[in-house]
Amino acid sequence: MEESRVHNQFQLTSEDCVRADVGEDVTFPCHVSPETSAVSTTIRWFKETECIYLYKNGQVTERSGYEGRVSLITQELERGNVSLRLRDYRESDRGVYICQVIHGEQKEEAALCLRVRGGKCSITPGMFLNT
């Protein structure tokens, strides 16, 4: 039993920083590694500590203010792509975004920083959620 548990473990890979100009569409790259289907996982995207997007059991919930602006590339979930698309980047969208994937007992998180093109990127240690 222990062997299959180890076999099922995964990690998230992402970039530290994403830059865009106001008005552009932005993709926050995040992938399950090794490449495994994420269709049956729970995927949450947070801005700071606020959950802005939830995918669970094929159902999607978007936070007010993000409705119609955030989405996953659902046809890519089968390949472990849990990247978030954000339409019409606004100045208020700047900040740290956290991708959280839960499968069974395992929960992994990856943080990305969104900045205006040309701005500095930095992720403060300890930004990960403990939920």
From TrEMBL:
- Give the record's GO CC terms: external side of plasma membrane
Q: Name one GO biological process term.
A: regulation of cytokine production
Where's it mainly located?
Answer: membrane
Q: Which UniProt keywords apply?
A: Disulfide bond, Glycoprotein, Immunoglobulin domain, Membrane, Signal
Question: Which sequence ranges form a coiled-coil region, renumbered to this chain?
Answer: none
Task: Cite the PROSITE patterns for this sequence.
Answer: IG_LIKE (PS50835)
Query: Which locations, inside or outside the cell, does it occupy?
Result: Membrane
**Where does the record place the Ig-like domain?**
23-113
One GO molecular function term of this record is: signaling receptor binding
What's the protein name? Ig-like domain-containing protein
